[in-house]
Amino acid sequence: MPGTPERTLAISATFTAEPINESLEFWFERLKLSFKIRHAAFNQVFQTLLDPAGVFATNHDGVNVVLVRWQDFGEGEQLQANAASFVETLSRAASQMKVPLVVVSCPCSPSFLEVEQRAGLAAQLDTRLAKLVESVSNLHLLPAAAIENLYPVSEIDDPIGERLGDIPFTGEFFAALGTCLVRKALSFSRPPRKVAVVDLDNTVWGGVVGEDGWEQVRIEPAHRELQQFLLEQRRDGLLLAICSKNNENDAWEVFERRPEMLLKKEHIAAWRIDWNPKSANIRAIAKDLSLGADSFVFLDDDSKECAEMRANAPEVLTIQVPKDGTVLGHFLRHMWAFDRAKATAEDRKRGESYQQEIARGAEAKKAATLEDFVAALDLKVTIEPLRAEMLPRVAQLTQRTNQFNTTTIRRTEGEIRSALEAGTLHCITIAVTDRFGDYGNVGAVLYSLDSAALVVDSFLLSCRALGRGVEHQIVRYLGAEALRQNLGEVALRFIASPKNAPALQFLDSLESTGESGGLYVRLFRVKADYASQLAYRPVAYAGLKEVESQAESMPESTPRALPSAAIDYQEIASELSTVPAIRREIRKARTSVGTPVGSDPTAPRNAIEAKLASIWADVLQVPSVGIHDDFFELGGDSLRAVELLVRILDSYDDSSDAPEMTLSTLLESPTVASFAAILGQRREVRCLVPLRETGSRPPFFCVPGGGGNVLSFRTLAMNLPEDQPFWALQAPGLDGSATVDNASEVAALYLDEVRTVQPRGPYFLGGGSYGGVIAFEMAQQLIAQGEQVALLALLDTYNLAYGKMIPRTKAIYCHARFFAQRAAAATWRLARTPAKQWPKHVRQLGRTSAKLAGGMLRMVVSPPKNQSQPKPAGPVRDLKAEPNRAIEVLERVRDANMRAVERYTPKPFPGKITLFRASIRMSEPYQDKYLGWKPVAAGGIEMEIVPGHHSGFDRRELGEALDRHLRRAQNQYLAGNAQVDRSAEMHVAPA
User: Which of 373, 509, 551, 758 to pair with 670, CA 20 to 30 A apart?
Assistant: First the structure.
């Protein structure tokens, strides 16, 4: 919305979570919520939680989200240890954040849960996480069961998608997950409703009590479901009220005489049961409860009564409940207006507190004066220094208290804790009881000490304790504390706000000297002797009544306008409460703005094109796709490409009829027409795949990592200038044919295809991760053949043979250092583990230490040698006959590539190596800054550090860095200029 500050929804996940963006963006647009989505690096949850400059720590207005699957933390004891560390990290991180942190325990896969021990462990971890969330006010839980109950889908898990792109869930589940997260985000951004006002006839029960009598009204399962829902809301702090056109005695007879009624009279905080207009009655109820009517929800089955309420009391959220009892429960579960961020102990006392207030009100009517009333209450006030368990409540008071709040400074739990630990602030809390009951913890004071005065930073008191002398007792305590600190004054800061006039009235009642700091800022200086002896004197809090009752005092002719971003809760609960309905609306939204989708809307010409067009449209969430529309131009990306191929494979009933294809097939044939043309053809899958075939500059050839799939380079290619051709080299075997597990053979195969595009050098080569090793061998073979290699770019590639290339003493030192680091980390975790869990952790630490010590011993006894032994590649399997052939192919190719790299020992390279290293380093025994390549870099190493981690460079930053080096190398060799352009910032290491 124009003029609305943009907030951030920051997400960190143990899996690829970007598919959730589709549903998030739909809801943000639909609800007019100004949010931007930021994803942390892939599977970097711990780093994101702890990074002081990361997306979580720098999110000052919005919501942070952690998506985890327990199985992603490892296996066996490693899983337990990592999960325990995760829970501990959550606790510390959440308390320091300025925004709410939502942790989502996502469903584990069926294959994981089919092992009884694993399923039990996952349940235990969920229970432990739930207990943690209860104790940390800023931490919120969204369990998998809640998502599945609210938005059930037929298929949750997508095993093929997980193997192809670490996408473990179906599009349907991502839509459900995104919807639940938006509901959570909305509960943080809007204050919770305070009162639910319900009609009686044909709402709380069936029939009309005035006509049918209390004996004949129907209390059916749907009515009991509504009553149960209201009781659950009351338990979490919502007040219940009744607004009904009836004779009052007739209505109460149903409550008293029908045992099926779950709702009882004692559950109702206020009521108006008469024949007056319901809009007038609801304002009267608001006045009784001293609450604004804009915090009310009105539930009625009658469309006329709902229309009257919307017309004459538009500030009230009016909901017409469905007459069909079979859908009532579903409707209520999807009434977002009742969502609450988290119910605190104080919230749960609210219903009881209002009952006590009714009793106090009756007592007040008996008393002759206010002093007599306060004396009759037998008030007991407990003021004490802050206890640790009260920190969440104090943070809540700073966020929610408006009227008796001297500065209205809002603070998070983490901000208060930091100030207390630093000694810049001190805190006291105030609890109150009287003969009618317990008010709970109703106040807090944050203050500091300077050389002359006790300075009150925030003085907070709940309205329900105001005007009864509690505020006077707090000042007496502060005065006594000032004297104990040998200070002469209590200085109380005041910053005006639209609602804190009651706080100012109290401060004005004190004998003080006021210093103005501006139009709305004042400092009240009170002598400590005077403050410590302050006697109770009633204060006429006129402003309190005006502020609390402003909704009722407005003229009937000028009803309060609805906010511009009003949410149609009725429509959501009725029309957008299932995943299929939500996905249909997403599809409509994608095509409701902008130009029509597709440059050529030609209809399918045959059954194959019709089937593909349907799958294309469903995956892209558009109504239709022309047979010449480009998949990527329509918004397709690598994530949707994975889903598309999975859907195409699943569309074949007989797996032997399925086509031979890989992700590169979609790059080569991105339209329905071109894709249909190659289906069923017996064709050889080439290794060389053009990601950008044209351009005036020499081509760049790049080898992907261990999986051998080129689609991961598409984004990188797009981040290079349009004049730079980019060719990727796909691993052999991705079409189900034989794999190659020898690096020299793979390199020779790749070069044969490279020469079909560029017969002679100079060549510009690169590779990511394990692919960098193959690119290195390609460069070696080209040099041996007399060709020039102008650029060899290794993208975070580690030389696995480095341990064999360094002196044994250095290798021993590296292992010893690694051992010490691991032991120190384990000891640090042990020190923060409850003592009863020490035996298990000590055993684990012992096993880890023995393993590392054994490795060191072998280093001393014998020289380092390659631990990876050649493994037979095995016969070529008929993957067409296997139902999960895509998964099998990927696994087999990955295994072959890893064998090839692990067996390979690089020889010195006469040229220069350009190393692009990720800024976030992995833990490794040989912590070499050049990732082990210096021993073989006869021509030196140029290194550029790129933001990101091994599994996820910042593609824009990487594209810019790679382009700089490509242009420099191209200019040098093509122009015959031997001088190296030093404009790029880098470090050159001599051989």
Answer: 758
Residue 110 forms part of a structural domain: yes
Please check whether residues 401 and 413 belong to one and the same domain: yes
203-235: buried (b, 16+ CB within 10 Å) or exposed (e) per residue? bbbbebbeebebeebebeebbbbbbebbbebbe
CA dist., res. 638 & res. 629, Å (int): 17
The two tokens of residue 631 are: 């998949």
Cα angle value 878/879/880 (rounded, 5°): 95
Provide the β-strand partners of residue 952.
Answer: 949
| Structural domain of 600 | 595-652+659-678
- Are residues 468 and 439 in contact, defined by beta-carbon separation less than 8 angstroms? no
- For residue 574, being part of any structural domain is answered with no
Which ranges in 248-387 belong to alpha helices (H)? 248-257, 278-288, 303-312, 328-333, 345-348, 350-366, 370-377
Q: Are 530 and 490 in contact (CB under 8 A)?
A: no
Cβ 811 vs Cβ 803: under 8 Å? yes
- Read off the amino acid at residue 691: L
Residue 79 tokens read as 């899983």
Q: What is the mean pLDDT of each run of 10 residues along the chain (991 residues)?
A: 70 90 91 89 85 88 93 86 89 84 93 88 91 84 92 86 77 93 89 90 94 93 94 89 94 94 92 94 88 90 93 93 90 92 64 61 60 70 90 86 90 84 93 81 94 94 83 95 95 89 91 71 92 84 43 30 63 93 81 42 74 82 78 68 71 57 66 73 64 84 77 77 86 71 88 88 89 92 92 88 73 68 60 54 55 48 41 38 49 79 88 86 65 86 81 72 89 57 37 35
Neighbour count for residue 609 (Cβ, 10 Å): 22
Q: Is 9 helix (H, G, I), strand (E, B) or coil?
A: strand
Are residue 435 and residue 320 in the same domain, yes or no? Answer: no
Amino acid at 545: K
Residue type, 399: Q
Q: What are the CA-CA distances from residue 821 to residues 21, 816, 925 (Å)? A: 38, 9, 10
Given a contact cutoff of 8 angstroms between Cβ atoms, the answer to whether 398 and 460 are in contact is yes
The structure tokens listed for 745 are 């053979």
